[in-house]
Write a structure and sequence with these properties.
Elements (H helix, E strand, L loop, with lengths): L1 E8 L2 E10 L2 H15 L6 E11 L1 H12 L3 E3 L3 H9 L5 E4 L5 E4 L1 E3 L5 E3 L1
Parallel strand pairs: 2-3, 3-4, 4-5
Antiparallel strand pairs: 1-2, 5-6, 7-8
Helix pairs in contact: 1-2
Length: 117
Amino acid sequence: MLRLTVTTRAEGTTLVLEGRLCRAWVDELAACWRGILAMDDAGPIRVDLDGVTFVDGAGKALIRAMRARGAILVATDLMIRTIVEESEDGGTDVALPNGTCRSIQRRTDDTGKVRRQ
């Protein structure tokens, strides 16, 4: 099960996800996302992933697509932050609980190992 909560304020729109992002719930989130994008007054869109407990491959692909469309991904849980980091090969901006953003860059060193900066 996945619970979706959308809040629109003057400073932007927040989409809060709670539960498992898999199978039919991915389609439900995709439909909700399309609805938010169609809103004239959506402003910046923050996607709060802190309540997510599981993400399958289709869910990860949707998160990547949302990030590519400009979503600000909010995650404090280690598992979800890892998924956020993987959402973009060149790096991503992660919104931290204190309201700041940290850019995470993924690079490969000379040995072929991934290192984070």
